[in-house]
């Protein structure tokens, strides 16, 4: 059954209230604790929680936290990042009770920026496709997506204002779309992956979840020290290319209509909008993604495959068994295809700010036996470009639909600005 509407905690609003003295970090922790008590049993977003420790840190260091970039806001960390004070189990019984001796680099960055690590969010095992049991906050019979299942669901349910996830295929953008929140996959390697369990070293990318585009931009700016905030001025009308790609027929009618409607509304609001036909190299790159991912996963997870194969999920076990047959020559050719496609994309976007394309094939599928498909994400992950899921739309059943903004490599702020422009249009169209 659909759940009563839940309101995500807006990171930027909370930070402003803390800065103004209207709210303390400890009080924000209490807001999270209340939501967790009310909803976590149904949703199952967290693999580990430290409410008491987070409250204590918030109270003991209030003045320091309130002056820090993240203002003492609670943060959820996907359970494939190492944490020294919480278990890190990678979503698998193989690592039950595992306690790293050091934080991952991104976790340390969050702490240094004044973030309070509230807990570890559920990941699918080793961040692959075998589902982990987390439910969609909008409709618990539907998947929240994966592999960053807990991160997206925790933000959508108001359990935490900011969460960290990762994307190798579509594991930030797709769950953000399914759960109706903003998801930001930065340009490749903007956020460090040191201390994160590797699946594919050429593709794994850390990302951020928050309620809206301005919130993820605020969080990313606070984490990195970069000028990424988009809340201080009106969003300028961007130059937009509408991209359907060769997999466009796999999008639902509602998703196709959302892309087309958004393009028309953006043009009416002053954006320069034109259709973009991708050259054939992008179909080759789409196929190359799987070769690169699978070849690297067979090596990154060699120990687990060789010593704990029976404890791997069935989908991951099948992938690794099949990946053993991929020849180095095929992998090297796939990498060359990816390089050509990236060069072509840079030329194609020379007079564009962003591309507009689906975030997912449609709304979250019913059932918790699947995390959905990364059909509309994996190409852009391979390209290393910034991607943002813009929330705000819904399908005819009331489930969230997201639209994806793809930026130019290294032009993350421009991509976030365009995403905010689109979000404001989608919100107006939806009556938000």
UniProtKB/TrEMBL annotation:
<dbReference type="InterPro" id="IPR023631">
    <property type="entry name" value="Amidase_dom"/>
</dbReference>
<feature type="domain" description="Amidase">
    <location>
        <begin position="27"/>
        <end position="414"/>
    </location>
</feature>
<comment type="similarity">
    <text>Belongs to the amidase family.</text>
</comment>
<dbReference type="GO" id="GO:0003824">
    <property type="term" value="F:catalytic activity"/>
</dbReference>
<dbReference type="InterPro" id="IPR036928">
    <property type="entry name" value="AS_sf"/>
</dbReference>
<protein>
    <submittedName>
        <fullName>Amidase AmiD</fullName>
    </submittedName>
</protein>
<dbReference type="InterPro" id="IPR000120">
    <property type="entry name" value="Amidase"/>
</dbReference>
<dbReference type="Pfam" id="PF01425">
    <property type="entry name" value="Amidase"/>
</dbReference>
């Amino acid at each position: 059954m659909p759940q009563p509407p839940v309101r995500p905690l807006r990171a930027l609003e909370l930070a402003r209230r803390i800065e103004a003295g209207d709210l303390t970090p400890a009080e924000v922790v209490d807001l999270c604790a209340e939501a967790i008590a009310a909803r976590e049993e149904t949703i199952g977003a967290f693999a580990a929680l430290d409410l008491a420790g987070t409250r204590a840190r918030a109270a003991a260091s209030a003045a320091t936290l309130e002056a820090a970039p993240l203002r003492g806001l609670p943060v959820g960390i996907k359970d494939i990042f190492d944490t020294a004070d919480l278990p890190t189990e990678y979503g698998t019984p193989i690592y039950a009770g595992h306690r790293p001796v050091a934080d991952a680099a991104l976790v340390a960055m969050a702490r240094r920026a004044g973030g309070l690590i509230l807990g570890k969010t559920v990941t699918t095992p080793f961040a692959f496709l075998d589902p982990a049991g987390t439910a969609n906050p909008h409709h618990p019979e539907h998947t929240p997506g994966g592999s960053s299942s807990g991160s997206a669901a925790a933000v959508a349910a108001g359990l935490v204002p900011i969460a960290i996830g990762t994307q190798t295929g579509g594991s930030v953008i797709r769950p953000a779309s399914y759960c109706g929140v903003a998801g930001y996959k930065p340009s490749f390697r903007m956020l460090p992956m040191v201390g994160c369990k590797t699946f594919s070293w050429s593709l794994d990318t850390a990302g951020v979840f928050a309620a809206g585009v301005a919130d993820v931009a605020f969080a990313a700016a606070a984490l990195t020290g970069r000028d990424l905030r988009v809340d201080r001025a009106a969003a300028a009308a961007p130059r937009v290319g509408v991209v359907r790609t060769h997999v466009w027929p796999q999008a639902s009618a509602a998703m196709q209509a959302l892309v087309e409607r958004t393009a028309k509304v953006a043009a009416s609001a002053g954006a320069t909008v034109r259709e973009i036909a991708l050259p054939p190299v992008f179909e080759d790159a789409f196929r190359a993604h799987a070769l690169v991912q699978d070849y690297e996963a067979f090596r990154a997870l060699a120990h687990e495959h060789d010593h704990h194969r029976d404890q791997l999920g069935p989908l991951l076990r099948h992938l690794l068994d099949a990946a053993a047959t991929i020849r180095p020559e095929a992998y090297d050719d796939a990498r060359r295809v990816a390089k050509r496609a990236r060069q072509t994309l840079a030329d194609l976007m020379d007079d564009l700010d962003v591309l507009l394309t689906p975030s997912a094939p449609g709304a979250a599928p019913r059932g918790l036996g699947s995390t959905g498909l990364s059909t509309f994400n994996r190409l852009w992950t391979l390209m290393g470009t910034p991607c943002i899921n813009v929330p705000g739309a819904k399908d005819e059943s009331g489930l969230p639909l997201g639209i994806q903004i793809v930026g130019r490599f290294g032009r993350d702020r421009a991509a976030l600005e365009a995403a905010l422009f689109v979000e404001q249009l989608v919100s107006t169209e939806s009556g938000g």
